[in-house]
Amino acid sequence: MDETLKKAVEEICQARGNDAGAMMDIVRQVQARFRGVSEEAIDLIAAQCHVPRVDVAGVVSFYAFLSTASKGQVVIRLCDDVIDRMYGAVAIAEAFSHELGIEMGQTTPDGKITLEWAPCMGLSDQAPAALVNDVPVTHLSTDKARHLIQSLRRYMDPSRLVERLGDGNNAHELVGAMVMNNVRKVGPVIFAPLGPGEAMKKALAMSPAEVIRDVKTARLRGRGGAGFPTGIKWEFTRAAAGSKKYVLCNADEGEPGTFKDRVILTEQPDLLAEGMAIAGYAIGADEGILYLRAEYAYLRRFLEQVLQRRREAGLLGKDVCGKKGFNFDIRIQMGAGAYICGEETSLISSCEGTRGDPKNRPPFPAQKGYRGCPTVVNNVETFCCAARVLEKGAGWFAQLGSPGSAGTKLLSISGDCLRPGVYEVEFGIKLTEVLRMAGGQEAQAVVVGGPSGQIVSAADFERPICYDHLATGGSLMIFGPQRDVLEIVEHFLDFFIEESCGYCTPCRVGNVLMKERVARIRSGKGELADLGYLERLGQTIKTASRCGLGQTSPNPMLSTLRKFRSAYDSRLVQQAGPFQSAFDIQAALAQAKEVQGRASVLFSGERHHR
Predict the structure, then answer these.
(1) HEC states along 57-108?
(2) Shortest CA distance to 290 belongs to which of 171, 365, 383?
(3) SS3 label, residue 137
(4) Closest to 390 measured CA to CA, from 471, 247, 273, 274
(5) Torsion of the alpha carbons at 282, 287, 289 and 290, rounded to the nearest 10
(6) Average model confidence (pLDDT) across the chain
(7) What does the pLDDT look like over 338-363, one tens digit per residue?
(8) pLDDT value, residue 604
(9) Strands of the sheet with 135-137, listed across from one edge
(10) In the Cβ-directed half-sphere of 302, how many Cα atoms lie within 13 Å?
């Protein structure tokens, strides 16, 4: 047995009380120290925390940033989302591979550098991008890729890759990132100044029931995309049985094309913390958890400092703002790379130290959430809006936006446009106006709400952005006339296949079948019957899947079938007779021929007789 590993695992586990609920922190630390969580380490962790080995192995195998195999001293994760590919990610991958002498997914023979693809890392406004360990590198090119490798080989220090510091707190000494905020339009809610404790003090002058009443009166709805009324969620949680309650902030913005929470975390962390504390007061919780996606680890030290500063100012901790008996604090829980953890019950599973598997509902988190206790789960933007409601009043907030969608919305805009970035707009704004602001007037298609949203055509550009028309969690991806809509759909399906937790058959198998049929149509081998098949399959997946991933994964395909039907029809094979076969027997047999070292007897193209 490796005594160094054994001693380190014991120390790491004991520092967290040998608590299996802290498994995410334990395995992340082991990974950081030993570049992987080996089979031996899994055994040691399981013994130390008194849990079955399979529980630890399940966590390590589930998250993309964890691995049983040892990774390099430096891990380069190149973003693989559709926007980065549009701007040259494939050529950059080839440059990296050529310089390192390895393929994607491999580690150099000396064990120093690992090269991997990664899904969207919240940098679509400055694509192509990569994470080098925890250091974000933006606006890559093939030349920059070669220089990056040369620098790493010389210094093995990712921090040296930061050629210039970004704006705002990106230049803070605890951040030191080259990331730009790209805030293109400032609105009255999210980016307005806030004095420390202003909203909190107003909330504490009211009863918890009055705070919830104001949030309901403001007509604040969840900004994650589903739009559930925030005040009602808080009311349900406060009324739920149980003396221990929790507030969870979902900062796992993994939806491709979304990056507005990144900017809030960088520039308005106090507003977020204030909103979480107000929620804690409203529901009767004394603990909040900020679930921070692994791709934003470069912000962690800065956020920890913000929280500590608030503790010292009496805005977190015991007797918050001098309110006797109201104790509330926030801790940061790091993720480890899993899109599914953006779903609230999966996020709770991850916080509990397990795989990010979704939970069955009911019971809902408001009834039985984190550690079996009533839990409020809202996203970053929602908590910020709640703080602003208490600061400026429910009436002020409710008069912003449209009748069914009060307030403002942060939009993350990327793709074929002149001014990608973050825009704070009032609900009810038409998509045409948004395209004009971003310089994307030539768009043929806009993905509203990311891959889990819908792809709309020019016929929908006059529709308003709000919950009743074009609903979005924040992502708007713009595609010009030169883009292939079916290629976008196929890429999104690849993403869902990779990110599915695999628990339920409709999602695990259905997305693969959907992708295969779309690929067949793209290759020019599709039949008219395939379109009916896709429609039926998509509806089945939506109806029968267990969680939001499967319930929304067919949306890109279904929306393009409606809005871009010609893109499908133009690729269908024209039927020459009563039958039309799209099956290529020789292609299907290719692998078998290679293994056997001979052609098929029955399908060689000749008649064979004995």
Answers:
(1) HHHHHHCCCCCCCCCCCEEEEEECCHHHHHCCHHHHHHHHHHHHCCCCCCEC
(2) 383
(3) strand
(4) 274
(5) 60
(6) 94
(7) 999 999 999 999 999 999 999 988 99
(8) 67
(9) 113-118, 74-79, 130-132, 135-137
(10) 23
Stated length of the chain = 610
Cα end-to-end span (Å), the chain? 62
pTM, two decimals, is 0.92
CA distances from 571 to 174, 445, 446 (A): 53, 19, 22
Owner of token pair 């694509």: 127
Q: Please name the residue ranges forming H helices in 357-448.
A: 380-392, 394-398, 431-438
Judging by DSSP bridges, how do beta strands 445-448 and 475-479 pair with one another? antiparallel
Task: Indicate the DSSP class of residue 574.
Answer: P
Is there a contact between 524 and 497 (Cβ–Cβ < 8 Å)?
no
DSSP string covering 18-40, please? T-GGGHHHHHHHHHHHHSS--HH
Nearest to 343 by CA among 355, 353, 357: 357
**Six token digits for residue 163:** 């050629």
SS3 479: strand
**Integer Cα distance of 546 and 534 in angstroms:** 20
Q: Which domains does the chain have, with CATH numbers?
A: 3-62 (no CATH), 74-163 (3.40.30.10), 184-398 (3.40.50.11540), 401-479 (3.10.20.600)
